[in-house]
Amino acid sequence: MLPASPLDGALVVDKPAGCTSHDVVDRVRRRFQIKKVGHCGTLDPNATGLLVLVLGQATRLSEKFMASDKVYEGDIKLGESTDSYDVDGQVTGSLPVPPLTLDQLNEEARSFLGDQQQVPPMVSAVKVQGVPLYKLARKGQEIERQPRFVHIYSFKFSHYEEPVARFRLACTKGTYVRTVAHELGQKLGCGAHLLTLRRLVSGKFDVADAHPLSTILGWSEADLARHVIPFMKLRSYE
């Protein structure tokens, strides 16, 4: 293994809405002319928050960090379903929202806790025979998807003003929070979709330590090196 350079390590980014995780990787790679850059867990374009980038030799650790548990916060809009289960999708149904209290929402949320098999949404990057599901969805195709094992540690609502409910959720990797929103809407009989999503924690990485992408792109290479978590220190984050 080659000696680690100052740019071998992890960079903690606060991803803005409106760009893909790959866009963030590409912008950092191009700005600083780094050959190897990867990320440790995709965020949907509309989602914001913690995105861990691995640079140089640290790219070999991406699978380990991707396997970490996650914590999110966001908003769910009741009474409206979409084909992607989030705000970016096409509306597929609209129904009246029943009278609900915060306690009633949290009672429903508790039913999601624990081990479960979750079916990925059609509008997702999951591949079937090498083809991402979202590409099939764009063609109007819907195919059977294999459920995935996930675990939800906590799911709690902190505020509700019809039709929007604010929540915090902790889960294992691979959990689709927008699927949770969709299934909640089905349980309530009115439909729902994910309105906003922000990732707060991934393993031992925290969004409190992250820097906005716009700030990072304005750094010099020396600035970047000062903020990279060195390759040799990343063992403590595993």
Can you walk me through this structure?
The protein is α+β, with helices and mostly antiparallel strands and 238 residues long. It folds into 2 domains: 9-67 and 204-237, 2-Layer Sandwich (Pseudouridine synthase), CATH 3.30.2350; 70-201, 2-Layer Sandwich (Pseudouridine synthase), CATH 3.30.2350. The protein has 7 helices and 15 strands. The chain has helices at residues 21-32, 62-66, 102-110, 133-138, 177-188, 213-217, 221-227, and strands at 9-15, 37-39, 48-55, 70-78, 80-82, 91-94, 114-118, 127-128, 131-132, 148-161, 164-171, 192-202, 205-206, 211-212, 229-230. Strands 1, 2, 3, 4, 7, 10, 11, 12, 13, 14 and 15 form an 11-stranded mixed beta sheet that branches. A two-stranded antiparallel sheet has the order 5-6. It is globular. The mean pLDDT is 92.
Q: What overall geometry do the principal axes of the alpha carbons give?
A: globular
Runs in which pLDDT lies below 50 for 5 or more consecutive residues are none
State which percent range the strand residues make up: 25-35%
CATH domain topology of the largest domain: Pseudouridine synthase
Q: What is the H/E order?
A: EHEEHEEEHEEEHEEHEEEHHE
Biggest pleated sheet: 11 strands, mixed
**Quaternary organisation:** single chain
CATH architecture of the largest domain, by name, is 2-Layer Sandwich
Mean pLDDT across every amino acid position: 92
For this structure, what is the CATH class of the largest domain?
Answer: Alpha Beta
N-to-C terminal Cα separation, in Å?
20 Å
Number of domains: 2
The tally of strands reads: 15
CATH homologous superfamily annotation of the largest domain: Pseudouridine synthase
Helix content: 10-25%
